[in-house]
Automatic annotation (TrEMBL):
<keyword id="KW-0812">Transmembrane</keyword>
<feature type="transmembrane region" description="Helical">
    <location>
        <begin position="141"/>
        <end position="174"/>
    </location>
</feature>
<dbReference type="InterPro" id="IPR014032">
    <property type="entry name" value="Peptidase_A24A_bac"/>
</dbReference>
<dbReference type="GO" id="GO:0004190">
    <property type="term" value="F:aspartic-type endopeptidase activity"/>
</dbReference>
<keyword id="KW-1133">Transmembrane helix</keyword>
<keyword id="KW-0472">Membrane</keyword>
<feature type="domain" description="Prepilin type IV endopeptidase peptidase">
    <location>
        <begin position="65"/>
        <end position="169"/>
    </location>
</feature>
<dbReference type="GO" id="GO:0005886">
    <property type="term" value="C:plasma membrane"/>
</dbReference>
<protein>
    <recommendedName>
        <fullName>Prepilin type IV endopeptidase peptidase domain-containing protein</fullName>
    </recommendedName>
</protein>
<feature type="transmembrane region" description="Helical">
    <location>
        <begin position="6"/>
        <end position="24"/>
    </location>
</feature>
<feature type="transmembrane region" description="Helical">
    <location>
        <begin position="59"/>
        <end position="76"/>
    </location>
</feature>
<comment type="similarity">
    <text>Belongs to the peptidase A24 family.</text>
</comment>
<dbReference type="InterPro" id="IPR050882">
    <property type="entry name" value="Prepilin_peptidase/N-MTase"/>
</dbReference>
<feature type="transmembrane region" description="Helical">
    <location>
        <begin position="83"/>
        <end position="102"/>
    </location>
</feature>
<dbReference type="Pfam" id="PF01478">
    <property type="entry name" value="Peptidase_A24"/>
</dbReference>
<feature type="transmembrane region" description="Helical">
    <location>
        <begin position="108"/>
        <end position="129"/>
    </location>
</feature>
<feature type="transmembrane region" description="Helical">
    <location>
        <begin position="36"/>
        <end position="53"/>
    </location>
</feature>
Length: 214
């Protein structure tokens, strides 16, 4: 019963995310209406969350993760992050904060690690190299992820996303030839890493207990 209801909720969320993507039609990008890949991903997320977490954390995780999946889809195909999805993520995080699902200290320090520090680094890189390694959309996404994950999980997310993106860049370079100006969208790696780090903290709480600021 619980699995069935959570699956339905996930499929419905995935369908809603797809409709939003197609409505926004950023750079003309739309998800094929016949494809159920996004719905199935969100369905899996919701089933896992409801069966692995308490109801408050499950709803927050499922909601934010579904938004992250949508952001990843769009950024992968357009190099843009839908601001509407960022706002939706911020609203979920604020509701979780008011409901005391997310501690205030974790919320504030997470934002510092996820948005403030990358913004400072991005500004420094721009002044030195005149190149922008991350976009402002990535900073906005880092704000949401940091507020949700907290400082240490956010730091691990940034590290993991950087390693994944570098690995992918090297792989693409081997296949298509090296180009120092080749850019890859960063949001899909941030989204996947954030979800993965959160799930890891559930299965290995003993390790993450030493890292996560409560």
């Amino acid at each position: 019963m619980v699995v069935g209801l959570s699956l339905i909720a996930g499929l419905a969320t995935g369908f809603l995310i797809k409709r939003c993507i197609n409505y926004l039609s950023i750079n003309g990008y739309k998800v094929d209406n016949k494809s159920l890949f996004l719905e199935m991903l969100c369905g899996f997320i919701w089933v896992w969350a409801i069966n692995s977490l308490n109801i408050q954390n499950a709803l927050v995780f499922a909601g934010i993760s579904s938004i992250l999946i949508g952001i990843g889809f769009v950024d992968l195909n357009t190099f843009q992050i839908p601001f509407a999805f960022v706002i939706a993520g911020v609203l979920i995080v604020l509701i979780a904060l008011l409901g005391e699902v997310i501690p205030v200290s974790s919320f504030l320090w997470g934002i510092f690690v996820g948005a403030v520090i990358p913004l400072i680094i991005m500004g420094g890189m721009w002044m030195i190299t005149k190149r922008q390694g991350m976009g402002f959309g990535d900073i906005q996404l880092g704000f949401v992820l940091g507020a949700w994950l907290g400082p240490m999980r956010m730091a691990l997310t940034l590290f993991t996303a950087s390693v994944l993106s570098l690995t992918m860049w090297i792989a693409v370079s081997f296949m298509k030839g090296f180009d120092k100006d080749r850019a890859l969208p960063f949001a899909p790696f941030l989204a996947a890493s954030g979800i993965g780090v959160y799930v890891g903290s559930v299965y290995y709480p003993g390790i993450f207990h030493l890292l996560i600021l409560q």
